[in-house]
Amino acid sequence: MSTTIDHLITPHWAPLRNIEQGWAELTEDERAVVAERLEHTLRQPWHVAHQRDALGHFFAFLAQVETIAIEVPLRFLPAADPAAVPRLRRQLVDEVFHSALFARIAHELHLPSSQPPPPLASAEALLARIRSEPDPALSATLLNLVSEGWIEELFEHAGR
Ligand SMILES: [Fe+2]
Questions:
Q1: How would you class 23 by CB atoms within 10 Å of its CB: exposed for 0-12, middle for 13-18, buried for 19 or more?
Q2: Spatial distance between the Cα atoms of 150 and 144, rounded to a whole number of angstroms
Q3: In 3D, which of 17, 1, 125, 6 has the Cα closest to residue 63?
Q4: What's the gap in Å between 62 CA and the centre of ligand 1?
Q5: 8 A C-beta contact, residue 86 and residue 27
Q6: CA distance 40 to 122
Q7: How many domains does the chain have?
Q8: What pTM value is reported for the model?
Q9: Rounded to the nearest whole angstrom, what is the distance from the C-alpha of residue 94 to the centroid of ligand 1?
Q10: Residues 108, 35: contact at Cβ < 8 Å?
Q11: What is the pLDDT of residues 7-45, one digit of tens each?
């Protein structure tokens, strides 16, 4: 059995595994774009004076569900029409960036804990069901319902 010390000591928050799957598909140039956007966004000063705990949970949940958006380009890139490939690659870069940003904010809001609370089991079960859907048409419908509908709903509530 081979293992690394990283595996033994690095806290591993579950949604990061899905972000890593998207990251693994990115080219070096695309990774540089994600890194640059993250650095640029995190350079903006932000400070949370109130409801740190509630916001921490909100961002942890957002990071958890946002990872399903990575699934759209990952699922459709292999058989995509060449004309659609550039758009799907841009989407992959965008969704990896969004997920990484939410996960990073969730981690910062939970400091000094080493990581945010575990993902919600009920949401994880739904996301796992969507990820494992073999039928492309049904999976596209589920992905749109959740990644468009659900995530937009969250933002709408957050904006109030
Ligand atoms: Fe997104």
A1: middle
A2: 9
A3: 17
A4: 10
A5: no
A6: 34
A7: 1
A8: 0.85
A9: 6
A10: no
A11: 666 668 989 999 999 999 999 999 999 999 999 999 988
